[in-house]
Design brief:
It is built from 14 helices and 17 strands. The chain has 442 residues and is an alpha/beta fold. The protein folds into two domains: 273 residues, Rossmann fold; 69 residues, no CATH class. A six-stranded mixed beta sheet has the order 1-14-13-17-15-16. Strand 10, helix 5 and strand 11 form a beta-alpha-beta unit. Helix 3 packs parallel to helix 5, helix 4 crosses helix 7 and helix 11 packs across helix 14. The N and C termini lie far apart (44 Å).
């Protein structure tokens, strides 16, 4: 498999701008204040387990929900709980948050203990460790990992795919993680394979990361059933359904999940953090964040504590080079623009991108010229121009007939459109409306 490059039909080739790919991960300056949201994942928000005035330690569980579709939240510092109140988060919502003032000691909670060797752990123990560590997809989707690893009995899984594609421009957090923490990824892969009961795993890495491909090949050389799958450089290669199609040839049905075709996909950063939770016992309290863009003085990859403000992180990169025109949580294609830098880093913050005003200003949209380029490159085989038109007309029934809900919101259509139509944005509106209607019917 190592001589073949895997890919999928469609997709686009935006400039990669991986300016930080050779910049090693640095520990971010420890924050004085953290704002930790009680909801950093898909599913039920957590209820606070602490009160104002309480003293907390690093790794201590401070929020939890009894719902299955949820993960707990932990303190990233030791110190005192100052407030419990709503704050804006990178997704744009106002979420209940626990505000902690650090005491600067970073005393670790007694519950943080190594979990032993994967070989000695049972499937149930691994799933419990992953849930208790607060694991949610760190590629941006923030789906609770223990839920993903608990498919129903009628959906047998036989393949694990580790997503190291990192196809979004600018982002290099996963690249650096594969280079600097390959042993943690190996521990995580073995743990997930055991939890799923699978004997085959592929680590998909785009060929523009040859050093990561070599490092991971060396790391898994003696590991049975684990293989590195080099991928063509194409966006959105990192979408889990595109990754499944590229490597296994299996096609996830419309409206279906990877488990429909016997697959589970986990992001490389997520897998490394699972490995760390097993090796050290430390839950998900910090993550690697790529800080880049034309308006940042000194782009870096930083290991940042959850709850640190974007403003503090950007200041550690020399601050703003010029007045920012746009700040994005995540990558430029699928990330979410922020109205303020006073939002906290959360579990899904893979990048903080800051662009100057010139780059942030989008060209004025023109009339569709019916060129069909958006349909040619759509990795889901949709007709974006049609769905967009129906969305603008608020004809959501017609948009549904053209499978708007299957859109993965990769933004490839908007990128390739010569008329600069806001295709992704208008399709997203239709998708949200359609899914809301379906939920209401249920």
């Amino acid at each position: 498999m190592s001589t073949k490059l895997f890919t999928f039909k469609g997709g686009v080739h935006p400039p990669t701008n991986k300016h930080t790919q050779n910049v090693p991960i640095e520990n971010a300056v420890d924050p004085k204040i953290v704002v930790i949201p009680m909801s950093q994942h898909i599913g039920a928000p957590c209820d606070p387990l602490v009160a104002v005035g309480d003293t907390v330690k690093v790794g201590q569980k401070i929020g939890e929900s009894k719902a299955f579709m949820s993960v707990p939240v932990h303190s990233s510092v030791s110190g005192t709980v100052k407030k419990i109140e709503p704050h804006y988060v990178p997704g744009g919502a106002k979420v209940n948050c626990i505000v902690i003032e650090s005491d600067g000691n970073f005393e670790v909670h007694e519950s943080v203990q190594p979990k032993g060797n994967v070989e000695d752990l049972t499937k149930e123990q691994i799933l419990a460790i992953i849930k208790e560590a607060g694991m949610a997809g760190m590629g941006g989707a923030t789906f609770p990992t223990h839920v993903k690893l608990s498919p129903p009995p009628d959906k047998p899984i036989d393949v694990l795919l580790v997503n190291g594609a990192e196809c979004e421009p600018y982002l290099t957090a996963d690249h650096r993680t594969m280079l600097e923490q390959p042993e943690l990824i190996l521990i995580g892969v073995k743990a997930i394979m055991k939890a799923l009961g699978v004997s085959k795993a592929y680590i998909g890495i785009e060929k523009n990361k040859p050093d990561a491909i070599e490092v991971m090949k060396e790391t898994v050389a003696n590991a049975e059933g684990i293989e590195v799958a080099p991928l063509e450089v194409k966006y959105p290669q990192g979408d889990e359904k595109r990754l499944i199609q590229a490597i296994t040839g299996r096609v996830v049905p419309s409206g279906g999940l990877p488990m429909e075709v016997g697959c589970v996909v986990d992001n490389a950063g997520t897998v490394a953090t699972i490995g760390n939770a097993i090796k050290t016992g430390m839950p998900l309290i910090q993550r690697v964040v790529t800080v880049a863009g034309s308006a940042v003085n000194n782009p870096k990859n930083l290991y940042v504590r959850i709850g640190t403000s974007f403003k503090d992180v950007i200041e550690q990169c020399g601050g703003y080079k010029e007045e920012p025109g746009k700040i994005i949580n995540g990558g430029p294609m699928m990330g979410i623009a922020q109205f303020s830098d006073e939002v906290p880093v959360i579990k899904g913050t893979s990048g903080i991108l800051v662009f100057n005003k010139k780059e942030a200003n989008l060209p004025e949209s023109q009339n569709c010229i019916m060129c069909g380029r958006c349909s040619d490159i759509c990795p889901v085989y949709l007709q974006p121009y049609r769905i967009s038109r129906y969305s603008i007309l608020r004809d959501f029934d017609s948009a549904d007939e053209f499978h708007a809900a299957d859109c993965i919101e990769c933004g490839g259509c908007s990128y390739i459109c010569p008329a600069k139509r806001p295709l992704k944005e208008t399709i997203s509106v239709a998708k949200k409306e359609i899914l809301a209607r379906r939920k209401k019917v249920k």
